[in-house]
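Subject: for your reference before the review

Hello V.,

The reviewers asked for a structural picture of the protein, and I figured it would be easier to keep everything in one thread rather than splitting it across files. Below is the amino acid sequence we used in the manuscript, unchanged from the supplementary table.
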Amino acid sequence: MKEFARLFTRIDQSTKTNVKVAALAAYFASAPEADRLWTVALFSGRRPKRAVTTTRLREWAAEAAGYPLWLFEEAYPIVGDLAETIALFLPPAQTDSDHGLTHWINMLRGLSEVEEPRRKLAVLAAWDELDATSRFLFNKLITGGFRIGISQKLMTRALAQATGKDEAELAHRLMGDWSPDTTTYNALIEAEVPGADASRPYPFYLAYGLEDAPETLGAPNAWRAEWKWDGIRGQLILRGGTHYVWSRGEELMTDRFPELARALDFLPDGTVLDGEILAWDGAPMPFNALQKRIGRKSVPKSLLRAAPVILYAYDLLEDAGADLRALPFGMRRARLQALLADLPKDAPVRLSPQLPFEDWATLALARSTAREVRAEGLMLKRADSPYLAGRKKGDWWKWKLDPLTIDAVMIYAQQGQGRRANLFTDFTFAVWQGNELIPFTKAYSGLTDAEFRQITAWVRKNTQHRFGPVRQVTPAHVFEIAFEGIHESPRHKSGVALRFPRMSRWRQDKPVQEANTLEDLKEMLRSFG
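And here is what came back from the structure prediction:
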């Protein structure tokens, strides 16, 4: 654990990418193989499940430190992180430990099988033999909240340095449904595996947002344009007589979209499609219809009927078992079009259309109609671009519509966490219905630190009521709320819910009486929902 803690410290104390990569590469070259495997797993989001509730951890930490629980509870929101609060609260360890990362993870995983008194003794004993940084990391692991300031892309680069293997190959190896229980470091990273896991997707190629005018991209004829759909980015894999569906977040979602199994009836084995999973009723349905299916492991028949899905395919990554990613996009697209040309109308896969254009002005006009087809804007892809891994600037751009906006009144405020634990950063907003303010959304991003400090000082002077950590404030400030979409929501008093709401402007120039109304929101719903 000490070696892993030293790695964490080197990464945490530097903002330089090369320093972080070098620290990781050195660790992968020297750490025990089991610890290397768990480090790869942790840094790619494969964390052990929570073994102890946070309530018990707070109680045990206060007891071990010899302080009343209320004092711990007062300190927690100021520190803003439970693992760090516990590490700071506890007295120095009385013993020392040389156990590695894998030992402590296995110990935590075993806690779920024992009664609570034994869990408590095990946790207290661990705290008493780990130094401060190791304790912090142990606490992160036990709460299931382990995150570190390094991306999987940087970890893959470090693995490439440590092993001499190609970075793109390693990125592909790390995709798929694996865990430290199902593989070894050697099998996952180092061994030559001609028959790779049939379920393994390719690393997704991600686009940057286009901030400048499209004319800066050069000649229009070098580019291809298509709609940016508001669904779930996914890969449909047909290999070995079966199929797999992967989300961009590397989540296996095959069971959630059983309609896509029928692709096996129409497409050949050895096919991998990249596209957008959309709820579909002859045209793309609102994202809200698809969202009802995202969190479900099994989908009831009623929901299958109400929100059937298709894959709107826009790229072909594998054809007849051959990896096509090095080919130009224009060539991959032509092969995709040929592959899908004769599919019947009821097939669960369709070809996402491209938009013809001769100049950027024509394309801008098409972009302005995106919401009419339930798209978020346009995707621009250079015709000669290969399919790369991760986010690369230059060949793929997303040209999204400007967000929708509404002016709303702040009515509740709550403190943030971490470095913003002393500031009010999370707010509830309302619009008018007659003379009543109706809450309709929450937002916590979009303001500068200076603005957060200013509104915090005001909240402390204008609190009307306290509800735990929440402050009801005098309705006196209007904020412009930006959002990407709006849909009906029977769970909310307003009857509507927003997609990706954030504060775009503090309208200190606007009196609360001039904020928007609930009818304004419902008019948006009728137009764009």
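For the response letter, the relevant points are probably these. Residues 379 and 398 are 5 Å apart (CA to CA). The first strand starts at residue 205 and ends at 206.

Happy to draft the paragraph if you're swamped.

O.
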